[in-house]
Amino acid sequence: MDHDVIVVGTRAAGAATAMLLARAGLRVLAVDRARFPSDTLSTHQVQVPGIARLRRWGVLDRIAAVTPAVPTVRVDAGRRAVLHGHYPAVDGVGALYGPRRTLLDAALVDAAREAGAEVREGFAVEELTREANGRITGIRGRERGEGRGRAPSTSRITATARLVIGADGKRSTIAEAVGATSYHVRPPATFACYTYWSGVDLPVGEIHVRPGLTVPAFPTNDGLAMVALFAPLADFDRFRADPGASYQAALDRCGGDLGDRVRSGVRAEPFRLAPDVPNQFRAAHGPGWALVGDAGVVMDPVAGQGISNAFRDAEILAAAIVRGLGSGGRLDDALAGYQRERDAAALPIYQMTRSLATLRVSAAQRLLLAAIADDPAETTRFLSVLAGADRYDEYLRAGNVLGRLSTGVGRRLCRRPVRAAQIKRRRVRPASAQAAPDHPKAAPALPARENRG
User: Fold this and answer.
1) CATH code for 3-44+100-186+277-354?
2) CA atoms of 350 and 278, how far apart (whole Å)
3) 338: part of which helix (H) or strand (E)?
4) Which of 228, 205, 209 has the alpha carbon at shortest distance from 94?
5) Which of 178, 196, 327, 416 would suit a FRET pair with 130, their CA atoms being 20 to 30 Å apart?
């Protein structure tokens, strides 16, 4: 084999995985059809657990040098449901950052190279190579040169490895090629619209929530503010007929002065629309292959968890591969452990995201926010859930919510007792009770596709 591992896709999940594997001494080839720095559709909040990983990996300094830290946030659900608090500390990091993908992905690609990974940009994978029994053994594709003044040259390349990792996003070519099964599938619920502004003052992060609307606003690098909105997918056609007017009207619905602040700023880039984000888990591994990042688990972006999820799963997968390829290791068994650990970690966040994607604001939710707004410790715990550092299902058990509503401000706000039946919640079964379907023993042939090199 030419390599121990080939990683297809070198954005957040793939570059992080390649970096960690190379640091462990493995021979790693990482390829991507893009060149870096380059952008991709993303609202790019990195939650506190993801930032803690960047610091542990030694990548945060490059991000923090040009991107403001966001240690505090204001959550405004209207009426009296407004809280302002600090994000929790995770491994000594108590802030999120919102670096643009032009910065974040390039920093991770550089870190992978510095760790010893071979990174090839402008490389389009066209097919997978296999053994007679169907086990994946490598990739074939075309590498595009950087020719100047004429059409760039291309070369066809075959590379082999003991494992091929698909880190190529929600429409993963690798997942399709190996026939990875999907589960926990839910249809898209929202669409996103975002853009960047100069001259918009954001001293803290802001999350505005109204029925049918969520608006996050955070500073990013280059002195800009990223202001996004999430609205029901059913409204998308009407919205895109006039995105500028629709966007401004949505911000004005948030109350306060957010709409006026944005109106007084200067839009730096076009509006970007994302109406088609699926919600699903895919089988995480099979004979000679594995998936990581959005290729393996993708969810509505309203919760801002995608990048942090990718970093977590990259760490879990890299550790499993190192064990599986080590002396006496069994790679397939190690990858099965990766899927179990990934699903156990991702499922509560997936359930939270599905809840947030309904874009509903109930009376009980407003009461909860108002009840904890004057309690800094409870506010931080609530923000810990939003950041993915605390479990959503445990925090929102009816008994816990009722306890918060029965103390302090909650008693004053509740003119009559709030019963458990009034608090709508979904029971989250443990991941072990929602196991993935069996993987096919052999990967099917790569389906015919047009040349997209």
Assistant:
1) 3.50.50.60
2) 12
3) helix 331-356
4) 205
5) 327
For residues 77 and 111, what is the distance between their CA atoms, to the nearest angstrom? 40
Cα-trace Rg, the chain: 23
- Cα–Cα distances in angstroms (integers) from residue 367 to residues 105, 361, 364, in the given order: 40, 10, 5
Q: 174: closest CA among 3, 353, 5?
A: 5
Compute the distance between CA of residue 72 and CA of residue 375 in angstroms, rounded to an integer.
15
Residues linked to residue 213 through DSSP beta bridges, in sequence order: 210
> How many angstroms separate the CA atoms of 361 and 210, rounded?
7
Q: Which residues contact 268 (CB under 8 A, 6 or more apart)?
A: 195, 196, 197, 198, 224
What are the start-end ranges of the E strands in 293-418? 297-298
Half-sphere exposure (CA, 13 Å, Cβ side) for 286? Answer: 28
Within 254-305, residue ranges assigned H as helices are: 258-264
Tokens of 217: 């606003």
Unique residue bearing structure tokens 């493995």: 26
Model pLDDT for residues 228-258, shown as the tens digit of each residue = 999 999 999 999 999 999 999 999 999 889 9
CA distances (Å), origin 12, targets 15, 58, 231, 234, 278: 6, 15, 26, 30, 18
**Hey, what CATH topology would domain 190-274 get?**
D-Amino Acid Oxidase; Chain A, domain 2 (3.30.9)
- Structural tokens at position 301: 């972006």
30: its two tokens: 């990482």
Instruction: Map out the domains of the chain as residue ranges.
Output: 3-44+100-186+277-354, 190-274, 361-427
What are the tens digits of pLDDT across the range 321-339? 999 999 888 999 999 999 9
Q: Which of 17, 50, 31, 255 is nearest to 140 (CA)?
A: 31
pTM attached to this predicted model: 0.89
Q: Let me know if 394 is exposed, middle or buried by CB neighbors in 10 A (0-12, 13-18, 19+).
A: exposed
